[in-house]
Design a protein that fits this description.
With 101 residues, this protein is mainly α. Helix content is 85%, strand content 0%. The chain has one domain. The longest helix has 27 residues. Keywords: Cell inner membrane, Cell membrane, Membrane, Transmembrane, Transmembrane helix, Transport.
Amino acid sequence: MFSSFLEALGSFFSGSNTVSNLTLGGIQHPIALNNGMNVNLMLALQSVGGAMGNMICLNNIIAVCSILRITNSEGQIMKKTILPMLVYGRIAAVMALILAS
C-alpha cells in the first residue's frame, strides 16, 4: 500500500505524473506480480500517488505563483498542501486495503 507514496515521490521529483508512471510502473508491476497482489489496484494506486506528488511538486507551485503573481510564498504553499496530501494518501491506502480484501 506504499505504492501511492512511492509514486508521490516520483512525481514530486519529476514534476509529472506521466513521467513518474513511466519510470516507476516498470518497477511496481513485477513487484505486484511476484507478491501475488492485484496488479490493476497497484497501478491505480500509482496514479493516485502521482496526483498526490503533483500537489506538492515545486514545479507546479512555482507555475501557480507565477500566474497569480505571488512572490516568496512557495514554502508556505507547500506547507499548506503537505497535510492534505498525506490525508489523501491515507484514504487511498485504506480504500486499497478494502478493495484488496
